[in-house]
C-alpha cells in the first residue's frame, strides 16, 4: 500500500481500537464500521451513558449525522428551536436564527441513539475497559496490561485524554477558566408548554455580576437549563441549584428555577480547553474533546467533534495509507476547528452575548461548515433560511 488515493476496492478489511464511548467515540466508531472496518470501542465506565442535561446540535453536526444515518432519529426525538432569543433583566433584546436548521435534544437520548446505531453497525462495545495510552505503531494499551493492535487506534477519551497524554510528540496547550456552568434537566412546566416555547432563550442579568440562564426545550416533557455564573459567585455555582439566589436574579423564571432546585443528576463544570498539534502520531489519532475541547459559548464542542469523526472515516476511505489519510484529514478540518475554539474562547472571555448573540456570518461559520463527506442531497435537506444569510 502507498500514500496514494485508494483504488476504491472494498476488499480491505481494517481494524480500529477506540478509547471512550462519548459522542465523538461513538460517532467515529459508527462511521468506520459503516465503511467496512471492524471496530472495538472501550469505555472505562461500567455502563455506556451520558449524564442527564441537554445539547444543541448545529447544522454542521446534523449534516455529519445524516452521513452516518442517525440524524432522522435526532429530528424525531428532539426539538428544532423556532428562534434564538436573548433577554436582559427580563426584557427582550433580540430574536435571531428564525428557521435555522439545528436541534436540541437530551444528552441521554442522543447517547442512546448513537449506542444503538453503533451496535447496529457491528461495533463491539466493551465496558469497564480503561485505556492508559496508545503506541503510535498501532496499539491501544489497557490498564490491565493488554495491548490491542489495530490499523488505527483512536483516543476519543475526552478533555483529560490518557491516549493524548501518552503520545509524547504532540504539543498541548491546556487552559482552565474561571467561568463555569450548572446544567440541569427539568420537567417542562405548564407555563412553557406549546410550540411558541420551542425556542432557545438566553436570559441574562449583569449586575452586580454576570448570571445567565440558557433555556432550551429538548422535548415535550423536558427543558435543559444551563445556569452560568463566575465561580467566585459560590452560591450560584452550586449543585443542587440555590433557588433563592437564582430566583432573586430571574424572578420571571421562578417556576423553572424552583424545578431546577429539585432536579436530580445536575452538575457544575468549569470551562476547559486544550489545543493539540498535530492530532495524530503514527497510527494513533485523537477525536473530540481529546483533541480540541472548547469553551461552550458557541455550543459547538460536540458538534465539531462529530463532524471531524465522520470526516475521518470518509478520508480514510479515500487513501490506502493511514498516515496519508490522517494528514489530509487534519488539513481539511484544522482551520474550521481552530477558528471555533478561538471564537468560543473570545466570546466566553468577553461575555458579549448579553447584548444579543449577534449570529453574524463569521459566528455562524462553524455551524454552516459543510464537511467534504456530505452529499449535495443532504446539504439541500438543511437549507439556511435566506434571512439568516444576510447578516
Ligand atoms: C456547559 C457545556 C455546554 C455544552 N453545550 C454543547 C452544545 O450545546 N453543543 C455541542 O455541540 N457541544 C456542547 N458542549 C461540548 C460537549 O459537551 C463536548 O464537546 C462533548 O461532550 C465531548 O465529547 P467527547 O466524546 O469528545 O468526550 P466526552 O464526552 O468527555 O467522552 C469521553 C468518554 O471517554 C470515556 N473515557 C475517558 N477516559 C477513558 C479511558 N482512559 N479509558 C476508557 N474510556 C475513557 C469517558 O468515560 C467518556 O465516556 C458543551 C460543553 C459544556 C461544558
Automatic annotation (TrEMBL):
Superkingdom field? Bacteria
User: Which keywords accompany this UniProt record?
Assistant: Dioxygenase, Monooxygenase, Oxidoreductase
As recorded in UniProt, coiled-coil segments are none
Q: Name one GO molecular function term.
A: dioxygenase activity
Q: Which Pfam families match?
A: FAD_binding_3 (PF01494)
Residue ranges annotated for the FAD-binding domain, each copy included: 18-316
* UniProt-listed PANTHER family: MONOOXYGENASE, PUTATIVE (AFU_ORTHOLOGUE AFUA_6G14510)-RELATED
Q: What is this protein called?
A: 2-methyl-3-hydroxypyridine 5-carboxylic acid dioxygenase
At the highest ranks, the source species' classification is: Bacteria, Bacillati, Actinomycetota, Actinomycetes, Micromonosporales
